[in-house]
């Protein structure tokens, strides 16, 4: 997950007074970049926004001055992304949200033109299957994350959704990376075309928007013929656009 759909600027070393202005300009460019998709073209959208926490100095905060894992977006910046314009009149939204920001997530879902219906819980486990207690939190030690599921129009899930339980049990990987199992659930239960916002890893059959999408090596893809095709957009300078 990262802050914008534009250039990867997380490694730049800028004075503290300059960096916020650069981030703001890039956020505005991200919204324009998202409008490059045709209107009303996606049946399902999966999003993992770079949420901004009130405690921005803790070691788990994305903006931690020393660790600085990735830049974040304010709530208003996330809400202003033109998601409603590129979603079909009948569509599904899967929105990752931290436990501490569920209320904000519901507001984003509403501003993007969707109605909240249910959620999917990611339960983080150890190798032995027990809860992974390494999470943080002010009230309880978090071992879960939520996916808010929203609907636009009267679109229900496909038949597999009637049998699908709303929990994913899997181990954590690198910081903020989400479980791949969610893709299979989305593809079985919701209609395409599929768009992933703030994507990191290529997924066959998906359009992916983000500045951390890892483009597969062209030569390796040609030789093996098995790597998923990157279906996102690209900026004129050749960088991947999210």
CATH topology of the domain at 43-198: Rossmann fold
SSE string: HEHHEHEEEHEEHEE
Helix content: 10-25%
Low-confidence stretches: 1-19, 218-242
Give the overall shape.
globular
The main sheet orders its strands as 5-3-4-2-1-6-7
Number of helices: 6
Q: Helix/strand-derived class?
A: alpha/beta
Rg is 18 Å
How many β-strand runs?
9
CATH class of the domain at 43-198: Alpha Beta
Strand content: 15-25%
Q: What summary fits the major beta sheet?
A: 7 strands, mixed
CATH superfamily of the domain at 43-198: Vaccinia Virus protein VP39
Distance from first to last alpha carbon? 10 Å
**Architecture of the domain at 43-198, CATH level 2?**
3-Layer(aba) Sandwich
**What's the mean pLDDT score?**
77
């Amino acid at each position: 997950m990262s802050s914008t759909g534009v250039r990867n600027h997380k490694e730049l070393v800028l004075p503290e007074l300059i960096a916020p202005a650069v981030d703001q300009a890039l956020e505005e460019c991200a919204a324009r970049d998202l409008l490059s998709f045709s209107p009303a073209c996606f049946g399902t959208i999966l999003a993992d926004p770079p949420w901004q926490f009130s405690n921005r100095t803790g070691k788990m905060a994305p903006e931690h001055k020393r660790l600085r894992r990735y830049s974040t977006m304010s709530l208003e910046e996330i809400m202003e992304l033109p998601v409603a314009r590129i979603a079909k009149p009948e569509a599904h939204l899967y929105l990752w949200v931290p436990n501490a920001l569920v209320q904000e997530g519901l507001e984003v879902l509403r501003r993007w033109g969707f109605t909240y219906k249910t959620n999917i819980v990611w339960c983080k486990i150890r190798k032995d299957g027990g809860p992974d207690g390494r999470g943080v939190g002010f009230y309880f030690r978090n071992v879960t994350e939520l996916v808010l599921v929203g609907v636009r129009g009267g679109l229900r899930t496909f038949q597999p959704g009637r049998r699908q339980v709303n929990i994913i049990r899997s181990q954590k990987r690198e910081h903020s990376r989400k479980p791949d199992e969610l893709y299979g659930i989305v593809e079985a239960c919701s209609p395409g075309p599929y768009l992933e916002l703030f994507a990191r890893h290529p997924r066959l059959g998906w359009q992916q928007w983000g500045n951390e999408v890892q483009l597969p090596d062209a030569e390796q893809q040609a030789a093996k013929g098995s790597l998923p095709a990157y279906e996102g957009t690209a900026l004129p300078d050749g960088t991947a656009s999210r």
